[in-house]
Design brief:
binds magnesium ion; binds adenosine-5'-diphosphate; three-stranded mixed β-sheet
Amino acid sequence: MTDNPSAAESWDRMRTTLPQNFGDGVWSSWLRHLDYHSFADGVLTLSVPTPFLRDWVTTHYSARLLTLARQVMEEDIKRLNIYCRDAAWSQFKTRDLPPPKNVAAADELEKADAEQSFGTASALDPKFTFDNFVVGKSNELAFAAARRVADADKIPFNPLFLYGGVGLGKTHLMHAIAWAVNKRAPNKRIMYLSAEKFMYQFIRSIRFRNTIAFKDKFRSVDLLMVDDVQFIADRDATREEFFHTFNALVDQKRQIIISADKSPDDLKGMEERMRSRLGGGLVADIHPATYELRLSILQNKATDIGLSLEDKIYDFIARRITTNIRVLEGALHKISAHSQLIGKPVSVDEAAFALRDVIKAQEKQVTIDHIQRRVAEHFNIRLADMVSSRRTRTVVVPRQVAMYLVKQLTPRSLPEIGRHFGNRDHTTVMHAVNKIEDLKVRDSQFEEDIELLRRTLGG
Ligand code: ADP
Ligand code: MG
């Protein structure tokens, strides 16, 4: 954000001094994720990609960052604020996390952390079971694979690699496996943790010089689950250590389950040998939920929380909230709260009102750039061809598809869209939209293709 260009510039300057002021380790593990967000009323706001990073950086480094900012930046900075820039998280998770820590609490946390760093892994959510997981076309492979791992006496495939976008049920499935294995074989040592947690325990072990204990701990489990490994894909030391742990466990014939937001092949930062080993077992992707799945998840969750809504309300939510099941659940809770407040069942208009922010936030997420990338990937053409003047059919149709999807999924006007596609005229965009609509009617395979793309883009 550049609401205040000079503050943004002074932040850029300050940022370059961070490695030297905090050391390369702290820089590369934590501080390099900081981005400038805004500066107003003496408050400098920086952002990080995850709530965990927010808490960690706030607790450990915000005081020093503030002191440094006061020295290095020209602005009169009174306070420093660090927030989580991932919309899905900040919208639905910040409430659930502890409030920003004051100094006393920070000390507590540091102490608890030191004690716990070799204790147990993350707690499992009792709601994340197989029974509570609604299966549909988009997640049936991942579900079947998870069940297989949980029920099998011998390791069926190693590792199981689950991938898919945010909020589509990866963590839910991992916890479900843990519960099921624990029930079937209580003696098995199961460890579930996020890749970030793996990273920070590893870094701690280096700092406290007990890497041996760290290694022992991870290499003595029967089932290791590491969630969201994309977070360590480009962190050299942690990634190496993770890979050693991984190999050691595979050699000892222990089951490993990994999740990420991308396929092994697309994990940037991982070397080829790692990617091929991560993908060497079963790779199961979870697609964005279909309308039918969204609808049945909503109905299930509503029953769980003792809520009963008219069918058209479920239909409305399932149509408008398409990207993320966590958001879908959040929407249901909002409707529930709203209906309690007004003391009667909500109408569609009231539902739309109660969800206006959620719907707006989700619409904002689809950008032209994102659509162009996805479509280029899908048709296997270069991103540059979205804006190039090439006229061969192999690039013309994908380009038209992208224009069509931008028109469908964003509020952009035709001239605006034209500008983003290599300065084309708005009539060209209109022609593209008509052409694709036409093709969809005539070719059902093509139509399916476009629908799939639209869904992966959250439309
Ligand atoms: P991810 O780890 O992929 O980001 P989560 O596993 O945290 O997603 O899922 C987000 C939320 O959506 C959780 O509350 C989870 O219970 C719910 N959820 C996801 N998929 C399903 C499903 N198929 N059935 C029921 N709930 C689901
Ligand atoms: Mg998750």
